[in-house]
């Protein structure tokens, strides 16, 4: 076993790890990036990009089916499942390949391959070939899909976000466990591609919405596309030929059904077990995750920082990239004996690329907060009707002094409105000042104008 030393060791070469390694190098530190594999980042390989490729195909099929509402007749729509998935994998592999190309440009001395395990607060063992001593480390080990206990004996009948994009053809039927952003996106896409789809979730919300009216709207909208079981829990599952039979109970009563495949979309816990963290001196919670400062990202008890999905805080790419930069710079500062930076956090921004889309800014609705709520409806909004997508609404949340603090939206292309609102909340913009802006006609942004006007009226 060879012995090496560095200033900063970065464990994991996903979005956060790559950003941390780059930031540490830019700060003048001798940094080593350690990748166990398979690499390519969660977003490019099994997350944002392949899911959007599937969604795009599904939207094309749905638009063709719905074209008659605009007086356009295209005939029967045929979905070629193998062709859809082949295109998905071809472009996904291109995105993953671009990540690998960037890594391959790094000097050999700044990269190691293998599983890294802590031997102490300043030492890592990589497989059985290298012992690496460091002054500071960045834990950017990402996350892995969770498979609920009832599904664990179903073998290949169970799909996860790590495997669903590698199937050769679309299944005849699919049960989706989890109605969060990932479950909702994939369930709607599969249903629009002709897969008989059912969604199960013990909660009462879809896509992270919390406003009661918007939750009800989402439930009505999406239940028209697939079989929806909110407030339901899958209690048991068993192989049934080459498929699976599930049994569930909940608000709508008990039921059972057979599905060709089951998709576990109930979350991605962080990859922190088996890393030897207990030998570093960091404080660990009951799940084995380190206690850390959410701004500096420094773990309590050791010169280790944690970034990206590994800290399970905000598992989205823009947060992982920023956290990686912060952790990398701070690791270089620790190695140099300097103080840490603690930048203010970005406003929470979450999106679901379903149709209609969902965006939640600043944490969403809370009846105990005392905030003022402004409302608007897309159902009678001009541009939404022109687009034949008049569904959903907007909720804006403000403090009594007029400062905008958050929002929830479900509607056509609200990814764009979501960004505008995130910037306004981040900057602490007063609702009255925000209202005094141009809103071009006819645009979806006029819905935001309506909601702001309602909020100004309520503020008095």
Give a short synopsis of this structure.
Helix content is 30%, strand content 23%.
Describe this structure in words.
- This protein is 30% helix and 23% strand.
- The chain has eleven helices and 22 strands.
- The strands form five sheets. A five-stranded parallel sheet has the order 4-3-2-8-17, with helices on one face.
- β5 and β6 form a beta hairpin.
- α3 packs antiparallel against α4 and α3 packs across α5.
- The chain is globular, with a radius of gyration of 24 Å.
- The model has no long low-confidence stretch (mean pLDDT 95).
- Which strand order do you get reading across the main beta sheet? 4-3-2-8-17
User: How many runs of DSSP E, i.e. beta strands?
Assistant: 22
Total helical segments? 11
Unreliable stretches:
none
Q: Over all CA atoms, what is the radius of gyration?
A: 24 Å
Distance between the termini: 72 Å
Major sheet size, sense and barrel closure: 5 strands, parallel
**Percent range for helical residues?**
25-40%
Shape: globular
SS-based class: alpha/beta
- Give the strand content: 15-25%
Which secondary structure elements does this structure contain, and how are they paired or packed?
Elements: E1 2-5, E2 8-11, H1 15-26, E3 31-35, H2 42-46, H3 48-66, H4 81-104, E4 111-113, E5 116-120, E6 123-126, E7 130-133, E8 136-139, E9 158-159, E10 173-177, H5 181-192, E11 196-201, H6 212-222, E12 227-230, E13 232-240, E14 243-250, E15 255-259, E16 261-264, E17 304-306, H7 317-335, E18 349-352, E19 357-361, E20 372-377, H8 382-386, E21 393-398, E22 404-411, H9 414-426, H10 431-435, H11 445-459
Parallel strand pairs: 1-7, 2-3, 2-8, 3-4, 8-17, 9-16, 10-11, 10-16, 11-12
Antiparallel strand pairs: 5-6, 6-7, 13-14, 14-15, 18-19, 19-22, 20-21, 21-22
Helix pairs in contact: 1-7, 3-4, 3-5
